[in-house]
Amino acid sequence: MTVNRRDFLKSAGVGAAAIGGASVGILSLPIISARGREAQAQIIADRKADRRLAAQPGMIRIDSNENPVGPGKKALDAIRGHLNESNRYPVLSEDDLIATIAKLQGVAADNVILGCGSGELLRSAVQAFTSKDAAYIGAGPTFESPGAFAKFTGAQVKDVQVNSSLGFDLDGMIAASRGAGLVYFCNPNNPTATVVSKSDTIAFVEKLNRLSPDTTVMVDEAYFEYVSDSGYGTVTPLAVQNPRVIVLRTFSKVFGMAGLRVGYAVGRPDVMARMKAWTLGSNISQLSLVAAVAALEDKANIAAEVKRNRESRAFTMKFFKDAGYSMSAGDANFVMVDIKRPAGPFKSACLAKGVAVGRAFPSLPTHSRVTFGTLPEMQKATAVFRELLSAG
Questions:
Q1: 196, 145, 138, 146: which is closest to 167 by C-alpha?
Q2: The CATH number, out of the four listed (3.40.50.1820, 3.90.1150.10, 3.40.140.20, 3.40.50.720), of the domain defined by the range 302-390
């Protein structure tokens, strides 16, 4: 059987992926050194070891910003009701989920692409918009996965340190972004749980468009539903108008589906096509797709989860405030707390007491990220915090 170049590229997952508007084949991809591969492998191994410790029986797992109560009943019922379709490829269900998302967001179906969680879409954006000549820009700290992958592919990575309030240094990010390929704008930001208002986000994009018109901004709204700040809002309408803006969403947080791996991106059709070239076909399982549709339509469950999170948030933040510790705004399902001591040893001490908190972030060495679990979980966890922090 003869295999032509286009078929070979497609089977290898490269397709017509574009960087800076030009199609790129395998031979023009950045050369990745053995050291780069080893570093990426070590990150994956470290994260897996961390998750294994957190998953020990009886552990209070407030380390990974997961929803502690899981999917709603309607999502679970959808999974049970479609088990007999597990033998079929999920083409029609993909269309159903895209149509549901498009209706919810007020966009067209071709403004939406799906991913295996937001992780696949973060990687596809790095592949599509960065290169050795088009840098990746993020905050210091922010969600590390896209920056780590950008390094792995050979792109230059620039992290702009957050300010004293743990918010984005917007001017610093704009200054660093001249000539960049992609700016990752996690809003609310993980791990700091701080937000940028809708008006300031739009102003940031407009200023960056003038300074660096070829730079794409990916706004990650993973924690959107949890935000109570009145100035916050989605920039999805901007993404369908502006070819340099992408909005990312996930089902891993408020919908409680981190283990089912569903995410989506919204943008102009041509921009979505560039990202989709770097995603796999049938990248979401049949059962995850039907669960996602049911989850989006279950407004009562979303409201109940937001209410639960706010109650746990209030309890947890009051504990830290009363104990004299400063923290971020906590505008998500987690908070970043300055525990006034190295975060790494604190995490290890918490694990020994049956509580898993977030990993240490090098740019904020005395800050610990704490996810809001259920109220009973937070009552037990804060008792452990009180014991360890009072020990000096």
A1: 196
A2: 3.90.1150.10
pLDDT digits (tens, 9 = 90+) for 14-47: 333 333 333 333 333 444 444 555 555 555 565 6
Which of 26-35, 190-199, 217-226 is the least confident region? 26-35
Give the distance between the most distant pair of CA atoms in the chain. Answer: 72
Q: What is the pLDDT of residues 344-389, one digit of tens each?
A: 999 999 999 999 999 999 999 999 999 999 999 999 999 999 999 9
pLDDT in tens, 152-166: 999 999 999 999 999
Question: 297-331: buried (b, 16+ CB within 10 Å) or exposed (e) per residue?
Answer: ebeebbeebbebbeebbeebbebbeeeebebbbbb
Cα(301)–Cα(375) distance, integer angstroms: 17
* Cα(207)–Cα(210) distance, integer angstroms: 5
The CATH number fitting domain 73-297, selected from 3.40.640.10, 3.40.50.1000, 3.30.413.10, 2.40.37.20: 3.40.640.10
CA distance 392 to 389: 6
| pTM summary value | 0.87
Per CATH, 73-297 and 302-390 having the same topology is answered no
Q: How far is CA 348 from the centre of its chain?
A: 25
Instruction: Dig out the tokens for 339 from the structure.
Output: 């525990």
Query: What does 317-377 look like in DSSP terms, one character per residue?
Result: HHHHHHTT--B----SSEEEEE-SS-HHHHHHHHHHTTEEEPPPBTTBTTEEEEE---HHH
CB 67 within 8 A of CB 255: yes
Q: Is 219 helix (H, G, I), strand (E, B) or coil?
A: strand
Asked whether the beta carbons of 64 and 281 are under 8 A apart, the reply is no
What residue ranges in the chain does DSSP mark as E strands? 18-19, 22-23, 60-62, 112-115, 136-140, 157-161, 182-186, 216-220, 245-250, 263-266, 334-338, 355-357, 367-371
Strand partners, 175: none
Please provide the average confidence, as pLDDT, over all residues in the chain. Answer: 89
Contact indicator for 239, 268 with CB cutoff of 8 Å: yes
Domain borders along the chain are: 73-297, 302-390
Instruction: Tell me how far apart the alpha carbons of residues 256 and 264 are, in angstroms, rounded to a whole number.
Output: 15
